[in-house]
Amino acid sequence: MHRVVVIGAGFGGLFAIKSLKNAPVDITLINGTAYHLFQPLLYQVATGILSEGEIAPPIREVLKRQKNVDVRLGWAREIDTDNKVVKVSGPGIDYEVEYDTLIVAAGATQSYFGNDSYADHAPGMKNIDDALELRARIFGAFEIADLHTDPEDIDRWLTFVVVGAGPTGTEMAGQIAELAHRTLPGQYKHIDPRKARIILVDAVGAVLNTFGDHLSTRALRQLHLLGVEVELNTKVVGVDATGIEVETERGHERIGSMTKVWAAGVAAPPLARKLAEKTGAKADRAGRIFVEKDLTVPGHPEIFVLGDLMNLNDEHGQQLPGVAQVAIQGGRYAAGAIKNRLEGKPAPKPFKYFDKGSLATISRFSAVASIGKLRLDGFPAWLIWVAVHLLYLVGFKNRVTAVMHWAVSFLGRGRSERVATVQQAFARRAIEEYGDPFERTRLEAIVRKD
């Protein structure tokens, strides 16, 4: 059987696999986690609306009826293109997987633009660990503020800074504002959550700048109505435990804040750069690989690169965005190309992305939608947002529970998932200090054998 190896269980990898369900292939899926992540809703986990299970169904459950798939846990570290082998590091074990066709859809990581130390104090929004850490930090900030008596300390704990005014940052700022002004008032004896400051910072001059001037202006107005302070044309130049340093049109400023969220910039994982070096392919500054029109690596028709890892322009010369629809359509296209090859049919026409529009929610019952020439905002856009996100939530159970939790949060004032633990707040940094226990155990075993 033709061996297809898929790296990554995001939208690109998952839809490629599903499209190969009845194809005469053996598929091996390599993924660093045991779940498929619906990343656009991570901010709702971070702000207590949804649980992590509702946006991250187990891969094995999603693919349990597809018999030609072998799911393997691990991180692809290197691709031997000469021998067609993927080298993988699993928990405490290294292994290799051979392929005839390779689909690389490993997603993106958070980019701090060369300032990786910022991550210690301003977590990103790229995985479940990030979302749970932020949930603990956000709800914990109100709890700790309630214990303090010094007004300056209280202000620092009740100041939330979100860096990046794209969809993720805008949605995050809006939900923290709703927490402070709708959900939490009346629950604390010593502080008024409504006095919390939510500051949205971006180096560019517009909120949701890819949505066009009209929707950008409407989104900015809605954020102001929510009480969010929007600082545009503002560059972050430093982040530490107790605040953030910025360069504004007014000059250098420091914002005292104990809770910072980083939602600005993405980059391809190290695997993409290694693949580019191995194949001689070009990569952009973010590490994305320039692919051919059929989504393959130049000179390597057996390797497809999808989603956030690829750099490809549309027919108008515009680079395709790193959104779910690009990955989904790319996954289906790659699967179709593989089936054509196996059946001896001509190669499909060059990949053409069909833009189904962009959506971002600002607050309950308020969103913006850019769909073709249609521009909507407010409640109609919010209804479209709900419908689209329900459509792409994998699994009937996930859709039902999401609707129930949305009802609690949007129709009422509650949050279904407010539990936050000390482990969630500090485990990531502890692991970084202590190291990977599986890797340490593996190395110790090797030393004993020697």
Descriptive labels:
450 residues; alpha/beta; six-stranded mixed β-sheet; single chain
Structure report:
The protein is α/β, with parallel strands linked by helices and 450 residues long. It has 14 helices and 23 strands. It has helices at 11-19, 42-46, 52-55, 59-62, 128-145, 151-157, 167-183, 213-226, 270-279, 324-342, 379-392, 396-411, 422-434, 437-449, and strands at 2-7, 25-31, 69-73, 75-80, 85-90, 93-98, 101-104, 109-110, 159-163, 197-201, 228-231, 235-240, 243-248, 251-256, 259-262, 266-267, 289-290, 296-297, 300-305, 310-311, 358-363, 366-371, 374-378. Strands 3-2-1-7-19-18 form a 6-stranded mixed beta sheet, with helices on one face. Strands 11-10-9-15 form a 4-stranded parallel beta sheet. Strands 4-5-6 form a 3-stranded antiparallel beta sheet. A hairpin with a 2-residue loop joins β18 and β19. The longest helix is centred in the C-terminal third of the chain and has 19 residues, at 324-342. The radius of gyration is 23 Å and the shape is globular. The model has no long low-confidence stretch (mean pLDDT 92).
Average the pLDDT over all residues and give the rounded result. 92
* Gyration radius from CA atoms, angstroms: 23 Å
Q: What is the strand tally?
A: 23
Distance from first to last alpha carbon: 39 Å
Which structural class fits the helix and strand makeup? alpha/beta
What coarse outline follows from CA principal-axis ratios? globular
Count of alpha and pi helical runs: 14
Biggest beta sheet summary: 6 strands, mixed
- Percent range of helical residues: 25-40%
Q: Order of strands across the widest beta sheet?
A: 3-2-1-7-19-18
Unreliable runs, pLDDT <50, ≥5 residues? Answer: none
Strand content: 15-25%
